[in-house]
């Protein structure tokens, strides 16, 4: 008799194989998972009956005799959505429950809109991208600390209209299915752990430097958020004549440069000009201080740097990297994000898929193959992929 735990583990193994391979036969699933052919047949028959898996017909080139039938995840009309709501831009990613891309968009965030207007804009965009599909889960990364129980948002200087609970409550009420919220740095790190620079690492941290500043921690195989969602809010720490965020974020660097009398358009212009030197020097030193703090706090295997400002600051950090060898004998690898701009949207999508599959007792689906395929499937950053008709 198969125990309940064994049954759940076998279901997870079969679904993980189909998620990572897109299509497979019962025989190949048995070989790759180490399960017996009888167990695989029993599990797949149950999953087919539940509508989670579909038989697609014989695989081409399977030779004479009885042909092997291809299996795949069903649910082309069942959608999940990942949203990365940033201070300057918002990325939307819609897939079906097997991770096949249905829509992708990158648009300017309405920074001067009210709370209600921002919520309506976001839900309208999700609804339009989903089209005729049935939306099951939406995961949204927000540029602030998100309380895991109340969904209250704090420390959002670059998008204050999402602070509190009014925004999250309005969005959750307007969208069908389940809506979950998290810090944008957390979902970006989830993307990097799943299919990016932190893939295969048990402990990793990520510093996201764009319009604002965020950090996230993946400790012993799970995201660390804390009681109130405040883990990673290192930007509020005092530094120099302000905070870490005011010294090293894009918006902070621009503000400091203008107060020094320099006419600058954005942080990129500061790096291109190489001035004001004081702003660049302080931002680099602040990044070094933050990396050192994260290093001694969590001893990560890798520190991932993400966001639009990160590559420029990372290049300047190289000259000071020897300082990282001092606090601990095994310094972490410093790596730029390999997912790049879509990291937050991909991570949010992964969080949405996790939520969807938990309802079927699949708590740790391996979505590395799904996320890698997503990255290859995404069009240019301004493009949309229309959802196909059912």
Automatic annotation (TrEMBL):
Record keywords: Kinase, Transferase
Residues covered by the HTH marR-type domain: 12-54
GO MF term set: DNA-binding transcription factor activity; kinase activity
SUPFAM superfamilies recorded: Actin-like ATPase domain (SSF53067), Winged helix' DNA-binding domain (SSF46785)
Domain of life: Bacteria
InterPro entries, per database record: ATPase_NBD (IPR043129), HTH_MarR-typ (IPR000835), ROK (IPR000600), WH-like_DNA-bd_sf (IPR036388), WH_DNA-bd_sf (IPR036390)
Protein family: Belongs to the ROK (NagC/XylR) family.
Designated name of the protein: Sugar kinase
Species of origin: Wenjunlia tyrosinilytica
Lineage: Bacteria, Bacillati, Actinomycetota, Actinomycetes, Kitasatosporales
């Amino acid at each position: 008799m198969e125990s309940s735990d064994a049954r759940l583990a076998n279901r997870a193994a079969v679904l993980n194989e189909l998620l990572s391979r897109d299509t497979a036969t019962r025989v190949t699933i048995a070989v790759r998972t180490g399960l017996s052919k009888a167990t695989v047949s029993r599990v797949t028959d149950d999953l087919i009956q539940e509508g989670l898996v579909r038989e697609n017909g014989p695989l081409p080139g399977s030779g004479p005799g009885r042909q092997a039938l291809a299996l795949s995840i069903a649910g082309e009309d069942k959608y999940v959505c990942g949203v990365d709501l940033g201070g300057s831009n918002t990325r939307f990613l819609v897939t079906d429950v097997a991770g096949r891309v249905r829509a992708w968009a990158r648009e300017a965030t309405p920074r001067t809109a009210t709370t209600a207007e921002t919520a309506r804009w976001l839900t309208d965009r999700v609804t339009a991208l989903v089209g005729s599909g049935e939306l099951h889960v939406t995961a949204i990364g927000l540029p602030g600390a998100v309380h895991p129980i109340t969904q209250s948002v704090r420390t959002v200087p670059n998008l204050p209209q999402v602070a509190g609970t009014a925004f999250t409550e309005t969005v959750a009420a307007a969208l069908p299915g389940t809506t979950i919220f998290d810090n944008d740095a957390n979902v970006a790190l989830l993307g990097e752990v799943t299919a990016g620079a932190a893939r295969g690492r048990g402990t990793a941290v990520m510093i996201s430097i764009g319009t604002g500043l965020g950090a996230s921690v993946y400790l012993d195989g799970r995201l660390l958020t804390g009681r109130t969602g405040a883990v990673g809010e290192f930007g509020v720490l005092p530094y120099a004549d302000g905070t870490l965020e005011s010294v090293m974020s894009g918006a902070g660097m621009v503000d400091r440069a203008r107060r020094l009398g320099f006419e600058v358009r954005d942080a990129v212009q500061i790096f291109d000009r190489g001035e004001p030197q004081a702003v660049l020097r302080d931002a680099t030193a602040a990044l070094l201080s933050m990396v050192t703090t994260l290093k001694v706090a969590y001893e990560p295997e890798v520190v991932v740097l993400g966001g639009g400002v990160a590559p420029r600051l990372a290049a300047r950090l190289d000259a000071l990297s020897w300082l990282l060898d001092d606090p601990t004998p095994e310094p972490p690898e410093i790596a730029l994000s390999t997912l790049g701009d879509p990291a937050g949207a991909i991570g949010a999508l992964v969080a949405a898929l996790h939520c969807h599959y938990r309802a079927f007792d699949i708590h740790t689906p391996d979505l590395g193959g799904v996320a890698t395929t997503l990255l290859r499937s995404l069009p240019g950053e301004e493009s949309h992929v229309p959802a196909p008709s059912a």
